[in-house]
Specification:
Layout: E1 14-18, H1 22-45, H2 51-74, E2 79-82, E3 85-88, E4 93-96
Antiparallel strand pairs: 1-2, 2-3, 3-4
């Protein structure tokens, strides 16, 4: 038998919310943006002796910038636990509780 304070009578009642810290979120995104820009800058300002290494630096920089964009999108939402489901703040249900 579970206590009532964990699962209230109304299944729509929010039990817990989990969201990323804004400072930590932006510090991570900013560090990835700086790394990506530095890799691309390095590829053009100080190109390596081999051409394929320059393409590698550009590709790595582009991948890190894409990772920063993905991190920005994925940390924008928060998780919400109710008595009937685990969902995100956009309303998408991640798991139902039965």
């Amino acid at each position: 038998m579970t206590p009532d304070f964990i699962f209230p009578d109304d299944p729509k009642t929010v039990i817990a919310e989990l969201s990323p810290s804004p400072l930590r979120r932006w510090a991570g995104i900013l560090s990835l943006l700086v790394l990506g820009c530095l890799l691309i800058y390095l590829a053009f300002v100080r190109p390596p002796a081999e051409l394929y290494l320059q393409f590698l630096l550009i590709a790595l920089g582009a991948m890190v910038l894409a990772l920063a964009a993905r991190m920005h999108r994925s940390t924008a939402l928060k998780l919400i636990l109710t008595g009937e489901a685990l969902s995100d703040s956009s309303g998408d249900v991640l798991a139902r509780i039965e």
